[in-house]
């Protein structure tokens, strides 16, 4: 951001500059909290869908907890812990016909989702499972719409869309249903459109249908 005055300006006001810095930090902190809350809500919506799918025997999918080690044990069953990095995607399981499903969950309140939303380790994990014929992808939310994007599409977005981010319009074929409390990641709004989009993608890549 650009402050009203900077240290090299003739009319620089130190007190006003400190106030502006404080406001900027508070605003960044507020946005960070909102983003974290939205991401957690999105994951809860996916977990609700997981329970619904398991009850209907459509799939058995679960959130993979982050590994951690205990730094110090506290009273009342509490502890200080350190989360460790891991290469497994956010959600893993199997669909009814036995195919493995793995995916990352990403939400943004902005109008686009960038490839850098995934870390290098997440990228490598999804690529590894995709090559093993798993149903791998990215379940994402962009503002008020939700999608399940096959990994090959997310991975190659630069070639498909000509840029390193996607918008709601780009992902329209992969939009999934949302009941409110649940993001139904296995239920495309338009299954035919999603199938045709993947068919066209694979044909362009020279892959087997």
Structure summarized in a few sentences:
The chain is α+β, with helices and mostly antiparallel strands and 209 residues long.
Query: Low-confidence parts, pLDDT < 50 over ≥5 residues?
Result: none
Computed over alpha carbons, the radius of gyration is 21 Å
Strand order of the largest sheet: 1-4-5-7-8
Oligomer: single chain
Structure write-up:
By secondary structure, the chain is α+β, with helices and mostly antiparallel strands. The chain contains 5 helices and 11 strands, in the order αββββββαββααβββα. The strands form 4 sheets. The protein has a 5-stranded mixed sheet. Strands 2-3 form a two-stranded antiparallel sheet. It has a two-stranded antiparallel sheet with strand order 6-9. The mean pLDDT is 84.
Task: Provide key terms for this protein.
single chain; 209 residues; alpha+beta; five-stranded mixed beta sheet; two-stranded antiparallel ribbon; 5 helices
How would the blueprint of this fold be written?
Layout: H1 14-55, E1 59-63, E2 68-73, E3 79-83, E4 91-95, E5 100-108, E6 113-114, H2 120-131, E7 135-142, E8 145-150, H3 151-155, H4 157-161, E9 165-166, E10 176-178, E11 183-188, H5 191-205
Parallel strand pairs: 5-7
Antiparallel strand pairs: 1-4, 2-3, 4-5, 6-9, 7-8, 10-11
